[in-house]
Amino acid sequence: MSNAPSASGLPRRDQIRKEAARLFAARGFLGVGVDEIGKAVGISGPGLYRHFAGKDAMLADLLIGISERLLEEGRRRAGGSDGPAAALDALIGRHVDFALDDRDLITLHDRELLNLRTEDRRTVRRLQRGYVELWVDVVRQAYPSLAAPAAEPVARAAVHAVFGLINSTPHSLGPSPAQDERAGLQRDAMAALLHSLAHGAFAAAAGAVAAGAVVATGGHESADSAAVAPAAADAPADVATTTATAAAPVADTVVPQD
């Protein structure tokens, strides 16, 4: 089977990736057969084995592949930015694009990571830990109050919270107002909102540390529940206008902790 682009405009291997991600996300990895994936791309099930060794290989390719791309692109954007504030803005923008454009992969990570072989799962987690460390380093450079050693756990917690916030979009981005009068925000509006909320969350974390409302002790954060952090007190000047709204902590959906 040729790997040349078909009528869809995608090479056959990429077509298989796209349809496998869609089907796995919709029905679960264990609920989808090779024949169904083949039918979705117009080839026989056995024909898929010319491109992938099997379903396990497809799932590994999807989850390892997106982890590699996020880390590589994150490093590229952070390294090519003019200062830490711009680097953080670029990281947020890239992750927002991923969350809005690759929602099936977020669903797959949430539900199917444990179906990976042990070696592949370890590879995903290693890549994702590298991605987290990149963000933590940039956040601590962008916000001086988070640069202190004692504030590192706060910066890390804020990064995980922002990932959870952004990655919630598979559950909140609307298909079309015409399809559902209560449909969620459309893409551009959601992107702008997520971008602003992410900056707000980091500014809130930095402001809370600067004000003494959050104190890191022994690797754990404790917060004065009555304190209201000054959201933009420690914000870089070029993002201060986006920090009026602080994002609430949400469940980590990017990097499960070993």
Summarize the helices and strands and which ones pair or pack.
Elements: H1 12-27, H2 34-41, H3 55-79, H4 84-101, H5 103-112, H6 118-142, H7 152-166, H8 187-210, E1 214-217, E2 220-223
Antiparallel strand pairs: 1-2
Q: Biggest sheet, strands in spatial order?
A: 1-2
Q: Tally of extended strands?
A: 2
Mind telling me the C-alpha Rg? 20 Å
Mean pLDDT: 80
The main pleated sheet reads as: 2 strands, antiparallel
Number of helices: 8
Head-to-tail CA distance between termini: 40 Å
Percent helix among the residues?
A: 40-55%
Low-confidence stretches: 1-7, 218-235, 237-258
Multimeric organization: single chain
Order of helices and strands: HHHHHHHHEE
Strand content: under 5%
The secondary structure category is mainly alpha
How would the global form be characterised? Answer: elongated
Structural notes for this entry:
- This protein is mainly alpha-helical and 258 residues long.
- It is built from eight helices and two strands; from the N terminus they run ααααααααββ.
- It has helices spanning 12-27, 34-41, 55-79, 84-101, 103-112, 118-142, 152-166, 187-210; strands at residues 214-217, 220-223.
- A two-stranded antiparallel ribbon has the order 1-2.
- The two termini are 40 Å apart.
Keyphrases for this structure?
3% strand; mainly alpha; elongated; 258 residues
